[in-house]
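Saturday, quiet lab. Running sequence design on the structure tokens for the scaffold JK sent over.
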């Protein structure tokens, strides 16, 4: 990050934070939805689960819009930070394929 200007770095950090919050909210929504489906005694309301799911995307879109209005370079950093989980998943897939091939499936 030292090679980029501060707007790109700030955008990347903001994107990474939004990506982390998005992941945590997604986990909670999946857990609540699974509990609601498997047991009828869930304290979680269905409308609240949907609202939180929509709020995740509003947060990402709002962050991108604000950063876009401030700095286009910051937007590129933000989008890079939001896409961090994609790189992490790709690395995990590579490790799992390597282990599977080494052990013969």
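Result came back. Writing it out in full:
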């Amino acid at each position: 990050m030292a090679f980029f200007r501060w707007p790109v770095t700030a955008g990347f950090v903001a994107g990474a934070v939004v990506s982390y919050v998005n992941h945590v909210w997604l986990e909670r929504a999946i857990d609540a939805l699974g509990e609601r489906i498997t047991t009828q005694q869930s304290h979680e309301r269905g409308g609240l689960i949907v609202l939180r799911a929509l709020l995740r995307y509003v947060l990402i879109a709002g962050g991108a819009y604000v950063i876009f209005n401030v700095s286009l370079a910051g937007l590129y950093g933000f989008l890079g930070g939001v896409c961090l989980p994609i790189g992490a998943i790709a690395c995990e897939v590579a490790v799992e394929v390597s282990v599977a091939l080494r052990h013969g499936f």
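Notes for JK: The helical segments are 6-38, 46-70, 72-82, 84-102. The longest helix spans residues 6-38. Ask whether to fix the surface positions before the next round.
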